[in-house]
Amino acid sequence: MPDDFERMWGDLAPVGRAVSSGGYFRQPFTTPERELAAWFVEQCEARRLRVETDAFGNVVGWWDGGAGPAVLTGSHLDSVLDGGAYDGPLGVVSALAAIDLMRSRGVVPARPVGVSVFVEEEGSRFGLACLGSRLATGATSWETARELRDREGVRLGDVVEGGTSALLADVGTFVELHVEQGRDLVDRGAAVGVASKIWPHGRYRFDFTGSANHAGTTRMEDRQDPMLTYAMTALAANKQARLAGQRATFGRIEVEPNGTNAVPSKVTAWLDARCSSDDALVGLVEVVSRQAAERAERDGTAVEVTAESVSGSVAFDPDLAARVAADHEGPDWPVIPTQAGHDAGILSAAGIPTAMLFVRNPTGVSHSPAEHAEVADCLVGVSALADTLERLTR
Asked: In the record, which residues are listed under signal peptide (predicted)?
């Protein structure tokens, strides 16, 4: 089993990796991500798993057996821009390795078991996180999704056929394994943890508009500079999130005309906000938006705020989480919340009983080349996932 896991991990390591940074560029429906998707199908076929694909590019390899509601596991293979190796692929490789481990134990599942790969989980190309699972569950309609465009203006409807999905029709339980995106497990000294809930989170577009002008000849007091309004808004978001113990990040901006010697006419910035409760999220975005408007009035600029996607708080099935945390040799795995969004949250919100396993990340860093997990901890995760799937398929 260690050789199987490490060999698979070695197969993925070079795909989509940038030489300069060591980070990964595996955006949906680009060559690196499609190479990984083809690799996954090959791995499923090598294990005699029946491969099923829907109209959006989501894939499941089915270990058919028994009857009744299926147990699904898996994750995603796409990455953020210049991302880490583990976010997503660890859950896919671990799921395949867990199937191998179960078979080596002589397990004959009384229910079908599936290994899934959902597309565009990160939202790094078409801007909507967990897009594949949203489409598979019906949380987002194809009529809406097909009009999404990437940074080059390519329309999603011109990349995939679209339509409907029946991949999840017979799924009774979903379990996702994921690298931890923080240091909670490091601080607890635990290799594996179990998710209790996902914080609510949203992506908001701030359009700041002003007047383009010459950077040299325009007096400072005569400017209507949207970059200044944006800068003060970013500082305000940071302050408000720190005061409330929440999360607020401006990580992407676009500037027009984007010239070194010109006062910009427009700055578009995207706020990623995550909070411990739905009310806290609403409150944080409201206060940042209000402060942005107040600053715009002083600067002679304007600001418009658009919620591009908002996901409410997701509480995972507490009984299932307790069973996953306790039903194994040794101390119970810790049950912890996560501030990151996952396909598991979409399936849970759709009414599918769902659990998540986390594998310790010694750096605590994610969405970065520094993201990491030790092989020994990964193998503990594989064993924990196999144990969980075995119990659920009895």
From this structure: none
